[in-house]
Amino acid sequence: MTTTAGGLGRASDWDPTAPETFDSSHEVYAELRRRCPVPWSDAFGGFWAATRYSEVVRVARDSETFSTAVQNVVPHVPRAQRRPPLHFDPPEHGIYRAPMDRVLRRSVVRRLEPAFAEAARELLGPLLARGGGDYSQEFALPYAAQCFALFLGLPVDQVLEIRRIGVAYSFAIQEMDRARVMAASDELYAIARAIVEDRRADPRDPDEDLVTSLLRASGDPERPIPYDLVVATVRQTIVAGIGAPHAVLGSAAVHLSRDPDLQDRLRADPGLLPATVEELLRLYAPYRVFARTATRDVELGGRTVRAGEAIAMIFPSANRDEAVFDDADRLDLERRPNRHLAFGRGAHRCPGAAMARLEMTAALGELLACTTRVEPDGEVEMFNWLEFGPRSAPLRLLPRS
Predict the structure, then answer these.
(1) Which superkingdom heads the taxonomic lineage of this protein's source (predicted)?
(2) Are residues 315 and 342 in contact, defined by beta-carbon separation less than 8 angstroms?
(3) CA distance 151 to 125
């Protein structure tokens, strides 16, 4: 295959649209790191991919050379307006991050930990009663939605509807169906606008409520956030805040189901769960679509990236880079340091990292506490390119007496 992106004929080095199993992509990425660490693909209009840790970190940190303001995901998403904070480079990016970081600090979100654990117990109940089910669809999805609903103060049904639209939006992007993309995006904007209007009429504590914090920032006399960009920030956050936990939780549960010794060790010593969560995040980082656009011609991993070309950061590959992580495919509870990239790096590092860790710890802690064994119970079906994790994960659960 060839492409003429950037005005040059270029052979495609890999196919990101190839069907995947739970393990297959890791084999593909290992081969790319060895043979062609910055491959080109003509899929989705053409893009480069950084597969090694060093190149991913370089792209993520150097906002002057690799901008997020042009194309920041692969495939490129047509948009009527920019959505902060992802669509802005520093220093403008910081205007939108400050009110988000304020309410997403661990010291703030840890108040939600008991509610997350209770949600996990309630959602596990029907699965335990039946002896198992589809963990991804029947637990991870509603659990991620419920946690985000608790954080944002929304009805769970509304958040599940957001997730439904978000999945349809993702598939429409991959299929390059502009009409469906715009229709789904309009629905998400309408929901975000209704949420913002509700908070404007009934504000909450700006130290704990994201929307109120953003609205207060909109009144900052020195650096005000325009109202339409408050809506756009909420629109951006509600999609990412559900999709990533849904994907990585499914991967984590599948991994545990295939490692009974690890299950036994964690049941005997729950204090090991935080280290386990870090390794699961490293092994199964849920995103590989986040991209930057080169602002000038630049050499990256031995390839010449032309100004205006997109570079996707393949976090699941970088997190298994043999040059950085010894025995990289193995879950190692003694791994020190563990500088994984599941939450990115640099100015755009995920603001929800603390909440994601709490969600995972509560969910997996309850899964282990409520069972004597978790086992695979069928074929795992993966999401498409846009989310890295199981769409379907059948598991057998042996409940604790």
Answers:
(1) Bacteria
(2) yes
(3) 22
